[in-house]
Amino acid sequence: MAPNNNQRHQRITRLVTQRRDLVAQVSIDLWQRLASELVSIIGEGGFQSLFSRSVQLTSLAYPWIAPVHVWLPAKAQFPDLQASLAEHEFIEASEASVSLLVTFSDVLAALIGDTLTNSILTSAWGDEAPGVSDKEVPI
């Protein structure tokens, strides 16, 4: 795996797990910010396609993760995802959330490359975007 991928994956893990008591809320905040950024670039349909594929791949390891309804905008599905994450303990919820965000970022990177993916994540998440800096997020 390329160093950019590892660094991006580690950042996603730090972002998701920064608040043990708020994994579901933190995860949804990350998704909402990412969706806002990407929808303006690739449209709702493009984001929905990437999100649906990522949920499908992630559900192989976490079958309880919220199903995707392809006719709904991705943002409308975030409450279902939040509810699914909130039903599980920290470890399982955080692992599933990290897996979903990592899968999404990897699919995106496969399409547009690591550099552009990291740039989009920076725009969505600010300085703590995966692959941007070595600054630690408190856990």
Number of strands: 0
The secondary-structure element order is HHHHH
Helix content: over 70%
Tertiary shape: globular
Helix vs. strand class: mainly alpha
First and last CA, distance: 25 Å
**Tally of separate domains:** 1
Main sheet properties: none
The rounded Rg comes to 14 Å
Unreliable residue stretches: 129-139
Mean of all residue-level pLDDT scores: 84
Q: What amount of the residues lies in strands?
A: under 5%
The number of distinct helices, counting runs of at least 4 residues, comes to 5
Give structural attributes.
139 residues; mainly alpha; 71% helix; 0% strand; globular; disordered C terminus
What does this molecule look like?
The chain has 139 residues and is mainly α. The protein has one domain (10-126). The chain is 71% helix and 0% strand. The protein contains five helices and no strands. It has helices at residues 3-16, 23-58, 74-86, 90-112, 114-125. The longest helix has 36 residues, at 23-58. It is globular, with a radius of gyration of 14 Å. The two termini are 25 Å apart.
Summarize the structure.
Helices cover 71% and strands 0% of the residues. The protein has helices at residues 3-16, 23-58, 74-86, 90-112, 114-125. It starts with a helix and ends in a 14-residue tail after the last helix.
Layout: helices, strands, pairs:
Blueprint: H1 3-16, H2 23-58, H3 74-86, H4 90-112, H5 114-125
